[in-house]
Amino acid sequence: MKKQKSMTEPIFNRFDLLSDEIVFLILDFLNDDPLDKKSFSLVCKSFHAIESRHRKILKPLRSEHLAKVLIRFPFISYLDLSLCPRITDSSLGVISGNLVEIDLSNATDLKDLAAASIAEAKNLEKLWLVRCKSITDIGIGCIAVGCRKLKLLSLKWCFGVGDLGVGLIAVKCKEIRSLDLSYLPITNKCLLQVLELQHLEDLVLEGCFGIDDDSLTALKQGCTSLETLDMSSCQNVSHVGLSSLTSAAGCLRHLSLSYGSRVDLALADSLQKLSLLQSIKLDGSQVTCSGLKAIGNWCASLTELSLSKCSGVTDEGLSSLVTKRVDLRKLDVTCCRTITCASVAHITNSCTSLTSLRMESCTTVSAEAFVLIGQRCQFLEELDLTENNIDDEGLKSISRCSQLASLKLGICPNITDKGLIHIGICCSKLKELDLYRSAGITDLSILAIARGCTVIETINIAYCKNITDRSLVSLSKCSKLNTLESRGCPLITSFGLSAVAMGCKQLTKLDIKNCQNIDDTGMIPLAHFSQNLRQINLSYTSVTDVGLLSLASVSCLQIMTVLHLEGLTPSGLAAALLACGGLTKVKLQASFKALLPPTIIEHLESRGCVFQWRDKVFQTDRLRSKILETTVGRGGMKQFHDMV
Amino acid sequence: MDSKDKICEDTWIKSSSSHESCEPPGNQPLTSFDSLQQKWEGSSSLDYGTTFDEQFSYFNQPSETQSSLARKVIDQNQISGQHDNQMSEARPLYKIEDWDPRAMLNNLSLLEKKIHQLRDMVHLIVGQREQVMDRPDQLLVHQQQLITADLTSIIVQLISTAGSLLPSDNHTVSSSSAISPHVQFGGVTNPTGVFPNFGIPNINNVNKVNLSNQTDLTSYHGAEQNCSVEDHELKSEDDVDESENLPPGSYEILQLEKEEILAPHTHFCTICGKGFKRDANLRMHMRGHGDEYKTPAALAKPNKESSSESILIKRYSCPYVGCKRNKDHKKFQPLKTILCVKNHYKRTHCDKTYTCSRCNAKKFSVLADLKTHEKHCGRDKWLCSCGTTFSRKDKLFGHIALFQGHTPAIPSDGSSDRGQSSEATKVGQMDFDFESRAPSESAFQNAMDIKVSGDDPTSFSQLNFDTSSVSRFHEFPRPPFEDAGGSFSFLLSGACGYLPKNGRYSNPNDME
Question: Which residues constitute the signal peptide according to the record (chain A) (predicted)?
Fold first, then answer.
C-alpha cells in the first residue's frame, strides 16, 4: 500500500496512461493479504473503479449489504456466502445472471424461495448448498430448471431434498460433472437417473442409507465417465452391488468405501475390473488379510490407500500389499495399532516415492522404524507421527525429507530440542507443525523452526510448558503464520502475544486458553493489528472486560470461546458481544445465561450468533493430565482435543 | 324412540323364541342389529315410511310377517307398562284380525296402479322400437325380461292377496314362496316402473339411511358381500375396466335405461317399500319383518346356482349413443358392473350438481367423487409455474421433467413470514382461487392478503369482484409481459414482476 502511495503522489495521472488490463494484471498479484486490495482501492477514485471492475471473487462475512456490494463489483463471478451468518431468502433476491459460482453452505435458514432466486443465475456452473436443511425438492426443482449449465452441485446434508429433486436435476442439468448427494434421503429411484448423466465424473453418496445393492445390480451400463465415487457409510451396499457398479463404471480412479461393509476377498475381487483405480479409501472398515492381499494383486495403478481406523490390519496383510504396490504415494494407517516396525520396514523399502504417510497412534511401532522413514522416503511432504514412539534419532533422520510441509509430532514424549532443531534447519518448506503435548520442547526448538521454516503457517505448541515469550517473539518473524495454538503455556505473557500480533498479520486463529499470564495488555495490540482474526479462545486467561471489548475492533471475528474469565462481568460481556457485530458462535459459561439480559441474547441470535453454554467446573492442570491418561488409550488425539 | 326400540327387540326375541323352527346362529347380535336397523328406519325415513307402512302392511297381510308387524304396531299402541304378559294374550287376537277387507281394498287399488304403470312402460317401449329399429335383439330380450318380471310381481302380489283368505296354517309356506321370487326379481332388474314414487323426492335422505345401513351390513356380512364396494372405489374399477380385453361375443351385453341408472335404489322391500342399493341390505332388512326371513335359506345369497349356470359373462353398455361405452361405438369398451354403469353415466353424461364448498370451483356428479376431492381440496397443492396444479408431488415433477421451461412454483407456507416469502406466497394463493378472484387484490395489497389468508377463501371470492378493487388495480404500474395468452399466465407474470421489489423494500427487518 505504501508503495502505491509513494508512486501516485508525485505524478498524479501516470496511472491513467496504463490500460485497465495492465492494472488488472498488477492486481492479480495482490493476493497475499485481502486487505491489500482494499488499500489499493482507497488510493483514488480511478483505483477504486478499477478495483471494482477487477474483482471476480467475493467472500463476505456479512450479507446485510450484499445488494450494494454486488452493484459495486459488477463482474463478480464467484460468490461465497458460506461465512455469512443467517442468510435469509430475501437477501438472495439480488443474485444476478453474471454469477458462475455460488457457495451457500451453512445457510440453514434458506428456504425454497432462495432457491428460486438462485435459479435466476442462468450461467451458474457451480453451486454449494451444504447444510441448507430447509430447502426442499421444490427449490431444487427451480434450480434444476433455471441453472441448466450447472457442472457442480453439492447438496450435502440438504435433508429436505429427496428422489424427486435429485431426479429432476439429473433430467434437466445434463452438464453435471460433480454431484454431492451425501446424507440425502434418496433411494434407488433417482440413483439410476443420476448414473445416466453423460458427463458425471465425481459422485459422492456418503451416508445414503436408502441406496442398496438392488439399484446397483440394476445398473447395466452407463456412467462410463465416472472417475470418483464416494460410497462411505453406505451400509446397505455390499460387494454384490459394488461388483455390478465396477463392471459398469470401468473408468473409476478414486473410490471411497469408508465405514462400509467388510473388506474381504469378495469385495477386493469386485475391484478387479477397475484397472485405472488410483486411490481407495477404506477408513473404519473391517479388513481381512486376504482382502488386503487381493487389493495388492488387483489394483495395479494404486497410488493412494487409506486404512485409517481399520480393524484387522496386520503386518502380514499390509506388507504383502505394499511390496506389490511400489508406486504408492499416499498411505494412511492411522490407528492401526497392531502393525509393527516390520510393516514400516516393508513400506519404506518398497514405497520409496511416498509423499504422505499418516500413522497417528501406531503405538506398537518402535523407535527405530522412524529412522527408516527418514532414510528411505525422502519425498515425504506430509508426515503424521502423532502419539508415536519417535525419538530424537528418528527426527534427525526425518529431517532429510526436505520437501516436508506438514509434520505432526503431538504427544510424542520422547522428542526434545535436539531432534527438532534438525527439522528447523533442514525442512525449510514446513508449513504446519504440531507439537501438542510434546513436553520436551523448549524455546530453542521454536527458535530454530522460526528461523528455518519461514513459510510456516500453522503451529501448535499447546501444553509445551517450557515455552516462553522468546518463542513467540521469534515466531513473530513468520509473516505467514495464521494459526497459533498455545494452550496451557503458563510462561507466555501479553508481551509475547503482542509481538505475534504485530508480526503475524495473517493470524486468523488463536488459542491462548489457559495462558494465565495473558491479560488486557495483550488484547489491545491483538485487536489493533490482527485484523484477520476470525477465531479466538480466551478461556482461563486473565483478560477482563476491557480486553474483550477491545476485540470488537476486529471486524472479522466470528468465533469466540470465553470460559472462566475471572475478571469478566456480565455487563462487560454484554457490551463486548454487542460490539462484535460479526459473531457467529460464542461459547460461554452457563452461569452467564441467567446474568445476561434475555433481550441481548435474542438480539444476538437474530443477528446469526449461536450460543453454546458450557457448565464446566474449573479444571486444574493435574486433572487434565489425568483425563489425558485415561483417554489416550482410545487413540486419536483429535477426540481428546474435542473433549477438553 | 328408546322405548319403541326396546319393544321391538322384545317383540323379536319373543316371537323368535315362539318359533322353534330354525333360527340363525348368533341370535343375540342379530337381534341387536335388527333393533339398530329398526331405529334407522324409524328415525330418518319416518316421513314417508309411515305412508308406506300403511300401504304395505296390508299388502301381504296373510303372511306371518305381516301379522307380526301388525302385532308390533298394536304392541306399540296398546302398550302402557304391562307389555310383559300382554304378548300371550295378544296372540289369539291376530287370528281375528287376519283378514281385513280394508287392507284388501288397498292392495287391490295398488295393484291397479301397478298395472297402469306397466302399461305405460310397454307404451314407452313400443315408442322406442319405432324410433330405433336397428336395435339388437338383446335389448328386446332385456325389455321382455323386464316386463315379465313386473308381471310376475303383480301376479305374486295378487296371489298373496288372495292367500289371505286361506287358512292361516299355510301362511308361512305360501308367503315365503311367494315373496322370494319377488326378491329375486328385485335383484335382477330395476323396478322403476313398479315403485316409481319411492325415494325420488327425498334422495339425500334415503341415501343417508342406506349408507349407514351399508356400513353396518358390510361389517356384519363381511365375506359374503363382495359386491358391496364403496362408490369411490368403483371409480378405479371403472378405469381398470378399460384395460380389460374380452373378445367381443364372449360376454353378454346388458344395457340399462337412463331412468334405471339414475334411480337411487334397485332393491325394494315388498312389505314396507323401503329401497336398498344392495340385495344383501334388503335381506338384512327383511329380518325385521318376521322370523321366516331369519332362516339361513332366506338370508343366503339368492340365485347362487342360477348365476353359476350362466356361462356368459355379463358386461354392460351405456345407453348414451355415441359414447365409447355404448355398444354401438366402434371401439366399444364394456362396463363391468351395474355400479360402473351408474358412475360412468353420472360422470360422463349428467350435470355436475355437487360443488365443492371449499374451492367453489370443482364440480362433481357423483357424491363420492366430491367427498374424495374434499379430502384433498386446498391441501397439498403442488403448483407448476404454468398454473397447473397437482395433488401429488411426483406428478408435478413428472410434468416439469416433461416440459421445457416449467418450474415448480413455491407453495404458500402458512408458517413463513409474509413479508419474506412475498413472491411465492402470492403465486400459490393466486392459483388457489384464481377462478373467482380478481387479480388486483392478491397481487398488490399486502394488507389485504393477510386478511385473505386468515379468512375462508370462499367467503372472499365474491367480494373481490367489486369494481373498486379492479379499478385500483389499474393504478399500479404494470410491467410488460410476453405471454398474455391465458388470463392466468397474465396474472402470474404481473404479480411476479412487481412483487419481489415490494417484498424487498417493505421489509425493514431484513435491512437491519
Answer: none
Give per-residue pLDDT as tens, B176-204: 433 434 433 333 334 434 443 443 334 34
Question: With b meaning 16 or more CB within 10 Å and e meaning fewer, what string describes A375-407?
Answer: ebbbebbbbbbbbbbbbbbbbbbbbbbeebbbb
In this prediction, residue A385 carries a pLDDT of: 95
Contacts of A243 by beta carbon, 8 Å cutoff, 6+ apart: A269, A270, A273
Which residues neighbour B146 within 8 Å (Cβ) at sequence distance 6 or greater? B121, B189, B193
Which residues are bridge partners to A401 per DSSP?
A: none
Q: In terms of DSSP bridges, do strands B389-390 and B382-384 run parallel, antiparallel, or are they unpaired?
A: antiparallel
Bridging pattern class, strands A254-256 and A304-306: unpaired
Residues paired with A391 in a beta bridge: none
CB atoms within 10 A of CB B92: 8
Tell me what pLDDT residue B459 has: 37
CB-based contact B37:B285 (threshold 8 Å): yes
Q: What is the mean pLDDT of chain B?
A: 58
pLDDT of amino acid A227: 93
pLDDT tens digits for B351-405? 888 888 877 878 888 888 888 888 777 766 788 888 888 878 888 999 999 998 8
Distances from the Cα of B176 to the Cα of A433, A618, B62, B183, B276, angstroms? 104, 96, 11, 10, 20
Residue B497 contacts A, CB cutoff 8 Å: no
Grid cell, residue B226, equals 363382495
Helix (H) or strand (E) holding A49: helix A45-54
Q: What is the 3-state secondary structure (H, E, C) of A313-335?
A: CCHHHHHHHHHHCCCCCEEECCC
**pTM of the predicted model as reported, rounded to 2 decimal places:** 0.62
**Does A27 lie at the interface with B, CB-CB under 8 angstroms?**
no
- Per residue in B229-270, pLDDT tens? 333 433 444 444 445 667 767 777 888 788 777 777 777 888
Residue of A nearest to B424 (CA): A113
Q: What is the ipTM of this complex?
A: 0.80
Q: Which of B393, B407, B423 sits opposite A164 (nearest CB)?
A: B393
Q: Is the pLDDT of residue B463 over 70?
A: no
Residues of A in contact with B405 (CB under 8 A): 145
Cell of A87: 442468510
Cα angle A399-A401-A404, degrees, rounded to a multiple of 5? 100
Q: What is the DSSP letter of B410?
A: P
Of A116, A145, A164, the CB nearest to B406: A145
**E strands along B191-250, which residues?**
none
CB A105 within 8 A of CB A130: yes
Report d(CA A438, CA A423) in Å as an integer: 15
List chain A residues with pLDDT less than 70. Answer: 1-13, 220-222, 618-644
pLDDT value at position A275?
87
